[in-house]
Amino acid sequence: MKVEKLVELIGADFYTGVPDSQLKALCNYLIHTYGIDKSHHIIAANEGCCTALAAGYHLATGKVPVVYMQNSGEGNIINPVASLLNDKVYAIPTLFIVGWRGEPGIHDEPQHIYQGEVTVKLLEDMDIETFVIGQDTSDDEVAAAMEKFREVFAKGKQAAFVIRKGALTDAPKVEYKNDNAMVREDIIRHIAAAAGEDPIVSTTGKASRELFEIREANGQAHKYDFLTVGSMGHASSIALGVALNKPQQRIWCVDGDGAALMHMGSMAVLGANAPENMIHVVINNGAHETVGGMPTVAANIDLTAIAEACGYKYAVCADSFEALDKELEAAKNRKALSFIEVKCSIGARDDLGRPTTTALENKQNFMAYLETL
Question: What is the pLDDT of residues 262-274, one digit of tens each?
Fold first, then answer.
């Protein structure tokens, strides 16, 4: 169905969420219509934050908010849905719009397979009334579902539209760009060269895909890299777990701004533990680029100051390859937890591939390599 029609049938005037490629039509519509507007549309750090923000909106207005997300974000909403929104607690009506990655029978990446299997069940287990929208769903069917949802909302309960692949159409065209010059794939190429044979933990999305292809192009083994294909925001914690248990080995984390924001508390834990053998690189393009390019707030905050406040011994920002190479070499020779923010453009190759090894093979090869260190 046309995304504008869905928005019309919903009839809400406040949306908050974390962007998703399956919901790109909706995300582009919201950016085109509202931009990032405090009264109508806010992109939050993670789905739990969105849910709490939506609750605050309801408390202030009495209206029903809309929270959008990829189904991978369902895990982040379980606590606020169960202990805040639920009708046995504060009874806060909320409409969720969930992109269904990994739907059974539809080919998708490994990190989406199990999540896809349990998407609807998780919503039902949280007592969220659910309606699935596919390519063949009519406007009348969605209108009828919304009428039923309004009865649910009147009882202080929640409902969800689960969006199948290709179900939303006619999105307005939106161009996402910034003024940064460095391309992420080239940045990762410089990091990989500096790291040599050091282990690298890379974040989910295009960063890990690019790292894999760089190794392929260089004729290198993939044993050096743990490609975090899912669990957005957790790569730095994975790297911390490795670094603390391999104290004589330098460990690198290649992170993204959206991922760093999603679980920023991880930076506080990193700083408190301050592993001398870890280098945390955040590639910041101010965008959720892997799922379409919608903005994050990272372009407008000082990540290096946050890292320093969290206890990182050294934090710096690089906006040129000359500065990046200098800081990478300095970090290698410094026995202290280091943070390097790298300013990055938005965009990637159209022919960017995906890892040809399985997630399990990646884990096994990485663990086998760590055993040799």
Answer: 999 999 999 999 9
Secondary structure (3-state) at 220: coil
Report the interhelical angle of 235-245 vs 265-273 (nearest 10°).
10
Q: How far, rounded to the nearest angstrom, does the alpha carbon of residue 39 sit from its chain's CA centroid? A: 23
CA nearest neighbour of 180 among 257, 124, 105, 106: 257
Written as six digits, the tokens of 106 are: 């539809």
* Distance separating alpha carbons of residues 251 and 272, to the nearest angstrom: 17
**Report field, pTM of the whole predicted structure over 0.90:** yes
Q: How many residues does the chain have?
A: 373
Both tokens of 242, joined, read 């490795």
Whole-number Å distance between alpha carbons of 324 and 183:
12
Q: Whole-angstrom Cα distance, residue 155 to residue 91?
A: 7
- What is the per-residue pLDDT across 149-208, written as a single tens digit (0 to 9) for each? 999 999 999 999 999 999 999 999 999 999 999 999 999 999 999 999 999 999 999 999
Contacts of 27 (CB under 8 A, 6+ apart): 17, 19, 20, 68, 291, 292, 294
Distance CA 99, CA 296 (A): 19
CA angle 157, 78, 132 (to 5 degrees): 60
Q: Where are any strands of DSSP class E within 66-185?
A: 66-70, 94-99, 128-133, 158-163
Residue ranges of alpha helices (H) inside 168-291 are: 184-195, 206-218, 235-245, 257-262, 265-273
Chain centroid to Cα 107, Å, comes to: 20
Residue 56: other Cβ atoms inside 10 A? 12
Give me the long-range contacts of 349-358 (CB less than 8 A, separation at least 24). 349/185, 352/185, 352/206, 352/209, 352/210, 352/213, 353/209, 353/212, 353/213, 354/109, 354/209, 354/212, 355/208, 355/209, 355/212, 355/222, 355/227, 355/229, 356/212, 357/222, 358/110
CA distance 157 to 155: 6
